[in-house]
From TrEMBL:
This enzyme's EC code(s): 1.1.99.39
GO cellular component: mitochondrion
Gene3D superfamilies named among the record's database cross-references: 3.30.465.10, 3.30.70.2190, 3.30.70.2740, Uridine Diphospho-n-acetylenolpyruvylglucosamine Reductase, domain 2, Vanillyl-alcohol Oxidase, Chain A, domain 4
Domain FAD-binding PCMH-type: from-to ranges: 49-228
GO MF annotation terms: (R)-2-hydroxyglutarate dehydrogenase activity; FAD binding
Cofactor(s) required, per the database record: FAD
PANTHER family: D-2-HYDROXYGLUTARATE DEHYDROGENASE, MITOCHONDRIAL
Name of the protein this chain belongs to: D-2-hydroxyglutarate dehydrogenase
Key words of the record: FAD, Flavoprotein, Oxidoreductase
Provenance organism: Micromonas commoda (strain RCC299 / NOUM17 / CCMP2709)
Enzyme class: oxidoreductase
Family affiliation: Belongs to the FAD-binding oxidoreductase/transferase type 4 family.
Length: 517
């Protein structure tokens, strides 16, 4: 799990006087110290990371966020901004006793402009709620992810979440037009703009996109809200090899072109897990036991009456024809196109809910990497080989890869390695499921191997989930020391006392390391 947690920094300890100051700012109800509130905000979605915050603060306005941070900065109290707490790298929960700043009360959609195709909302707006508000105006959010029912737009911006439709909408670095951010000393940066063009010096908002709460608290977001399609089609194709999955992607880019919204893949192990774990999940192509599956989503706009536009029926015919042509040319073994919205959503769920199935199965080691598309699945194969080699090197089914056998042995026969992800973006989700729990021995087989292998391909050790508490010490696999040092200097500009989300993203300086030894 990324080794031992970083030692507690030299931050102040929360006192009754601090709680009284917070109550003054927020009112009694929004300063939570009860066990239920603290349990929920101290533990992450995977139940892998757990902190020990003594208070959860729930502001409703930017001015309150500003007053809280002013107080914390003056006192030297550490703070973790928390959105929907669906992050997968332990970034949104405390490592030690940091104060949790929950954004859920700041959830208003402030303005929607259907002509410009823009929306402004508060950071605590749940992505699915925003989607519904936009759908009512014929618009859609520029991102979609499996956690949409819980994650917040401020969390999405702060992690630079990618998700399922990046193929169509691009990254949030392009879709976000403006932000309001409160920096560590309580300063409010009003960078909220809905302009498409604004070349007035440094584009400061970009620094906060993907900063994971280490530079400031995002309080408002302005972003593009594209037109909602009048119809979508989902197809699942079974393919005989990963190379065929890549060939199907290449083909889709030319044949489905502008309509393509998503191009995802999963392997057989992922499908088996979903089928055995999630109620109602059905094999999309029960006659074929393929090693890989690709999922496409295509969109149609308009009602077919305008020049060059097609009806949804015609668009679906086009997708069916594409699937048929893949089969005819031997790229796909079989394929199915969703017959209606219910069928389409059942097909999507097979891909979208793999993480939920993994959570049901027990402990899981997650790696979220960017790699050259053709080589993406090699990492899954290499990981399986490595696991098998260490298992056969062991005398029994229990294996130990580290010094203390008693604490590191695990039953390798229960461990499974899954590969799935956003094929259209070159983003692999390598997941190693260990139903019996986390084991240092298993971790030693996986790390630093996965990071080193990724670095050798000049990939990224975090494609979309971020660095959080999991990977600060691995950052050097994806960034050189000069770049990491530049990041530290940026941190010092916005948060000189280092109170915002300490222990996350940035690795400690070597000198800091040494002084602690
Ligand atoms: P949190 O988990 O609460 O926080 C995440 C980070 O952002 C933390 O560092 C936190 O401190 C910071 N933060 C949160 N809010 C603010 C704020 N207002 N200001 C400053 N910092 C803030 N991720 C993807 O990229 N693509 C996917 O397809 C995807 N699918 C997922 C599917 C499931 C089932 C789950 C559980 C997770 C998935 N994720 C995915 C990961 C996660 O949902 C995203 O990282 C999401 O953007 C996190 O949003 P959140 O509101 O839950 O943030
Ligand atoms: C997805 O694409 C998410 O489903 C989660 O990014 C991936 O759980 C994971 O590893
Ligand atoms: Zn993903």
């Amino acid at each position: 799990m990324g080794g031992d947690p970083a030692p507690r920094g030299d931050f102040a300890v929360l006192t009754d006087a601090d709680l009284a100051a917070f109550r003054e700012i927020l009112g009694d109800d929004n300063v939570r110290t009860d066990a239920r509130s603290l349990d929920a905000c101290n533990e992450d979605w995977m139940r892998k990371y757990r902190g020990n915050a003594g208070v959860l603060l729930l502001p409703a306005r930017t001015s309150q966020v500003s007053a809280i941070l002013r107080h914390c900065n003056a006192r030297g109290l550490a703070v973790v901004p928390q959105g929907g707490n669906t992050g997968l790298v332990g970034g949104g929960v405390p490592v030690h006793d940091e104060i949790v700043l929950g954004m859920r009360r700041m959830n208003a959609v402030l303005s929607v402009d259907p002509v410009a195709g823009t929306v402004v909302c508060e950071a605590g707006c749940v992505l699915e709620d925003l989607e519904h508000a936009l759908n009512a105006r014929g618009m859609t959010a520029p991102l979609d992810l499996g956690a949409k029912g819980r994650c917040q737009i401020g969390g999405n911006v702060s992690t630079n979440a990618g998700g399922l439709r990046l193929v169509r909408h691009g990254s949030l670095h392009g879709s976000v037009l403006g932000l309001e951010v409160v920096t560590a000393d309580g300063t409010v940066l009003d960078l909220v703009r809905t302009l498409r063009k604004d070349n007035t010096g440094y584009d400061l908002k970009q620094l906060f996109i993907g900063a994971e709460g280490t530079l400031g608290v995002v309080t408002k977001v302005a972003m593009l809200a594209p037109r909602k399609p009048t119809g979508v089609d989902v197809a699942v194709c079974a393919v005989g090899s990963f190379a065929d999955a890549v060939a199907a992607l290449r083909d889709a880019r030319t044949k489905l072109g502008d309509c393509l919204q998503a191009f995802e893949f999963f392997d057989r192990a992922s499908l088996e897990l979903v089928l055995s774990t999630l109620r109602g999940a059905r094999d999309p192509l029960p006659k074929t036991k393929a090693p890989f599956y690709v999922v496409t989503e295509t969109a149609v706009f308009g009602d077919g009456s305008g020049k060059g536009s097609v009806t949804h029926r015609a668009a679906r015919r086009r997708v069916r024809a594409w699937v048929r042509s893949l089969r005819k040319r031997g790229v796909a073994i079989d394929g199915v196109v969703g017959e209606d919205a219910k069928h389409a959503s059942a097909l999507w769920n097979l891909r979208e809910r793999i993480s939920v199935a993994l959570k049901h199965a027990g402990a899981v080691y997650k790696y979220d990497v960017s790699l050259p598309t053709e080589r993406m699945y090699d990492l899954v194969v290499e990981t399986r080989n490595r696991l098998a080699a260490s298992t056969s090197a062991s005398t029994s089914t229990s294996t130990s890869a580290s010094t203390s056998a008693a604490s590191t042995s695990f039953d390798a026969s229960k461990v499974s390695v899954l590969g799935y992800g956003h094929l259209g973006d070159g983003n692999l989700h390598l997941n190693v499921s260990s139903p019996d729990g986390y084991h240092p021995g298993l971790e030693a087989i996986l790390e630093p191997f996965v990071y080193q292998w990724t670095a050798e391909q000049r990939g990224s050790i975090s494609a979309e989930h971020g660095v959080g508490a999991m990977k600060p010490r691995e950052l050097a696999h994806s960034k050189d020391e000069a770049s990491i040092e530049a990041m530290r200097r940026v941190k010092e500009v916005f948060d000189p006392r280092g109170i915002l989300n300490p222990y996350k993203v940035l690795p400690p300086r070597l000198t800091e390391h040494r002084s602690k030894l």
